[in-house]
Amino acid sequence: MENGQPSDIRLVASNAQNQRLRLYRGLALNKLKPAEVAKVIGDGEQQLRSVLDIRTKEEIGDCIDYPVPEGVSYRILQLDSRSGEFVELRSAKAASESDSAVITFYRVDFYTLTKKLKIFSGLLWNNWRLALSGWTSSERFDTTDGIKMGILKKLANDVAHSKGGAGLYLDWLDPAMDCSGLVALFRLLCNPDIYPAMLHCQYGKDRTGAVCALLQMMDPGMTEDQVVDEYHATEVHIKRLLPEIEAKVKRAGMPVECARCPKELIKEVLDWIKNRYGTVEDYLLQIGLQEAEVAAIKSNLGYVKG
């Protein structure tokens, strides 16, 4: 714990004109202790309204419940990739029947099957679905046979190294790889009613780190060096989980460095954005957002020059 707050949870942005418009970042709630979850959720005016869960379906599994404190009502909405709409998986009691407001959990898997198929194109095996699931599920890695494990390890190394250390990040962000889930996530951030909100993936490191870096690059009050330092700080905040992360990275056949948050990695991503698109705003327009939506995100997060 740091300053009375869970060390794994950090503030990304806070609108000085409206303190309710706050965005936090962290890791999956099931990685926190109950007391930490209670602090994350908060109460009264400080209570979260939304949790933006960007783990893959394989990481979430069949669970439709979250480790929230007793007495907190919540609902779960999951992105339907076919319709682009959010479908309700679990309804909470009406807010009037609860002592606290209803928290909405949005599930957005922006690392889609389409991306996986493109990344792994050209390789054929009978049970490809099991192998793809193994990308994020350590249990399923353990059940694959030696031949498929060898293929998976080679694929992981190829993806991690083909575009440098930031290869996986670039595949997540590249419009050629299908960014529909990522667009849905940014469109959620356009809506002022979702705040205060917390964004997380499995460890709050890679997907969360990339998205937060893009958001903070739009903040006129932050320099690129500060954005890079903020990304790198995650390595300290998740130190207690590094052995677990390193084990999964090794099992996937990836370099152990992928378990960490080196400054050079996010610098490569930011350079890719600048060299190809110019600014983060231009990148967001390229993947499908409208100018009004980009402006709404910046307004909500207080990214407006005074």
TrEMBL record:
It comes from the Eukaryota. One of its GO terms (molecular function) is phosphoprotein phosphatase activity. InterPro entries: Prot-tyrosine_phosphatase-like, Tyr/Ser_Pase_IphP-type, Tyr_Pase_AS. This is Tyrosine specific protein phosphatases domain-containing protein.
